[in-house]
Amino acid sequence: MNSEKHIASARIFCIVLFIITYLVWDFAISYNKRMAVVHKARQEYFKLFLLEEIGVDKLRQLKGSKGAILLENHFVGGIGELTTKLSKIGDDLFLILQVKNINRNKWLIKLPLKEGLRADNSKASEELGNIAFNLGLDYTGEDSYKLVFRDIERNLLDQGVLIPSVGFELKSNYALWVIAILAMFILIIIRNRINSAFLDDKIGLDEPWIALEGFSGLERWTATVWLIGVLSCPWIVNFMLTLTITTQISVNGSISIAYNIFKFVVILILMFISGRTSLSIVSLILHLRNIRREQISIILEKRT
């Protein structure tokens, strides 16, 4: 039984795990920035939609109202069915735009009535134009705001999300799920490799790994950081997955509540399996390190 190969394999997979965790972190930050732009574009679109379809005069008449449906199941090509209503949330009145898009997702935008009354056509058009310009989309002031908004949504939601640190894109819908599952299997492989090293009497003494040799000084601190990394990686990956899914639901809506619950149940399962596996890996590494320390002490005594 070649324990050195098992130790080397475990070390390599740990490095892969660290890299994957960093990429997930980078991806999640990039994705959340993108969804913030989507939310901003929808807010500006809603202001323009209110001014064109409902008008400020009608909005002023709603000041004393407790709630009303202003527009129901209004279809806009390329966007979906729109319903606009006034709702009282706490002590404030909010204008709410609910959209059932062509992908069956349901999302909404809330806007305080006071802000809706202050909505300015030229300013909202300028904000929407700036977003389009920053995305590299062709835009002129004469273009329909509906067309501009549709192009912005397609650009932001249909294309992959760029990972800045490596310069390539991943599809936002599935990438993090695949990576989270991959991280779980990598942890299982690492645990298997370390367990296999115990089956050899040499326990991989000829294969260096700082996590197994940090007995004192700076080496010990480096080994501690390594172990903390192994312990925290699955939690970071699943936290970023949770953050991304939450942002996606918050900004871009979802098909149903049951589907959302299913997603979070799967995340909890992944978190439990990955977290428990990482704990057992750290325990095994510490145990193996103690055995190696004893073996090294015996070898040194024999030499003296």
Key attributes of the depicted protein:
304 residues, alpha+beta, 2 domains, four-stranded antiparallel beta sheet, two-stranded antiparallel ribbon, 6 strands, 66% helix, 14% strand, elongated
Describe the structure.
With 304 residues, the protein is α+β, with helices and mostly antiparallel strands. The protein has two domains: 3-34 and 165-303; 40-159, no CATH class. The protein is 66% helix and 14% strand. The chain has nine helices and six strands. It has helices at 3-54, 56-60, 113-117, 121-134, 145-158, 175-197, 210-213, 217-252, 257-303; strands at residues 67-76, 80-89, 92-101, 106-112, 161-163, 168-170. The strands form two sheets. It has a four-stranded antiparallel β-sheet with strand order 1-2-3-4. The protein has a two-stranded antiparallel sheet with strand order 5-6. A hairpin with a 2-residue loop joins strand 2 (80-89) and strand 3. Helix 1 packs antiparallel against helix 4 (121-134), helix 6 packs parallel to helix 9 and helix 8 runs antiparallel to helix 9. The protein is elongated, with a radius of gyration of 27 Å. The two termini are 30 Å apart. The mean pLDDT is 80.
